[in-house]
Specification:
Helix content: 25-40%
CATH architecture of the largest domain: 3-Layer(aba) Sandwich
CATH superfamily of the largest domain: NAD(P)-binding Rossmann-like Domain
Number of strands: 12
Number of helices: 13
Structural class: alpha/beta
Bound molecules: 2-keto-D-gluconic acid
CATH topology of the largest domain: Rossmann fold
Strand content: 5-15%
Radius of gyration: 22 Å
């Protein structure tokens, strides 16, 4: 049996990408790899040959403009704040992301992070491993509990909804804030983030990174959450004023925080590292073998759909109206 031939289509991969995506891209396309998304790293001939980019790194307007025949950018990740999708739309370049396949994984992680934060489970395990159960006795009772809490979700999209459903099953009341009320969502809506924070004691940010959400969780929101407040961030670090958050944790403005995402990853400031009431994870929301493989498949299937059928599977909103090139 003869092997299927790769398409005569150049796909550029700047920086690191999931190994399964790289293998499938190599099988199906002409794959070109460069260290980072920097126009200086490609000559004019290669630049002109590139019709697709597959990436999990920042793709800015300058890089898009350096690729005159670019048709599609397939982003590895549901969050595509690192891709200048508005500029891509102007240039009639399709942008795709990887929704749905990671929804349940990220929601599971959010719930785990919330429980770890409230019940101090990582600290309790460290206590056991350090031999303190033997030397000092039982781990101290956790100051906080999920019992009696009320949850506010900032960003009631697919992942927000999956978190809400899980926590509703835990018996907790759920409210949310979005730019606008989601008609199909039955949970209590607040038209401001401060209003939501005032109404709840547990705030979970699932909001995407954008100019509109930049540092939206600020000192005022944290003060409104209050002294028994717990803040969890599973969305993007940029949605939080990290300096204000560290200060609020330190001076008791809020009780505790669980963070999977940060402003300047992978760097986490000492002001957070030094706090006992911050539960910190290295951006592992979707990071299981199962889910990352599904995300990698969706990146590649978007390119196959685009070049074989003229249709991307999961276009982002900004480029919904972008169609395939004629001729
Ligand atoms: C990944 C994520 O960590 O999907 C997202 O938006 O933040 C995560 O699932 C990220 O895509 C890896 O680059």
């Amino acid at each position: 049996m003869s092997q299927p031939q790769p398409r005569d289509i150049v796909v550029l991969v700047p920086g690191r990408l999931h190994g399964h995506a790289v293998t499938r891209l190599g099988d199906g396309f002409r794959l070109v790899r460069i260290d980072r998304a920097d126009p200086a790293l490609i000559d004019a001939e290669v630049a002109a040959s590139v019709r697709a980019v597959a990436s999990m790194t920042a793709i800015d307007a300058r890089f898009i403009d350096a690729l005159p025949n670019l048709e599609i950018i397939a982003n590895f990740g549901v969050g595509y704040d690192a891709v200048d999708a508005s500029h891509a739309a102007i240039r009639k370049v399709m942008v795709t992301n990887t929704p749905d396949v990671l929804t349940d994984e990220v929601a599971d992680t959010a719930v785990g992070l919330l429980i770890n934060t409230v019940r101090e489970l990582p600290k309790a395990e460290a206590w056991l491993r350090a031999g303190r159960w033997v030397s000092d006795g039982a781990y101290p009772l956790s100051r906080a509990t999920l019992r009696g809490r009320s949850v506010g979700i900032f960003g009631m999209g697919r992942i927000g909804l999956a978190i809400a459903r899980r926590l509703a099953a835990f018996g907790l009341p759920i409210s949310y804030h979005n730019r606008s009320k989601a008609e199909s969502v039955g949970y209590t809506y607040h038209d401001t983030l401060v209003g939501l924070a005032q109404a709840v004691d547990t705030l979970i940010s699932v909001a995407p990174g954008s100019a509109a959400t930049d540092k939206a969780v600020n000192a005022e929101v944290l003060a409104a959450l209050g002294t028994s407040g717990v803040f969890v961030n599973i969305g993007r670090g940029s949605t939080v004023d990290q300096t204000a958050l560290a200060a609020a944790l330190k001076d008791g403005t809020i009780l505790a925080a669980g963070l999977d995402v940060f402003d300047d990853e992978p760097r986490v400031p000492d002001t957070l590292l030094s706090l006992g009431n911050a539960c910190l994870l290295p951006h592992v929301g979707s990071a299981s073998v199962h889910t990352r493989q599904a995300m990698a498949d969706l990146v590649v299937d978007n390119l196959i759909g685009w070049f074989d059928q003229g249709r991307a599977l999961t276009p982002v909103n900004e480029t919904l109206s972008v169609g395939p090139r004629q001729g």
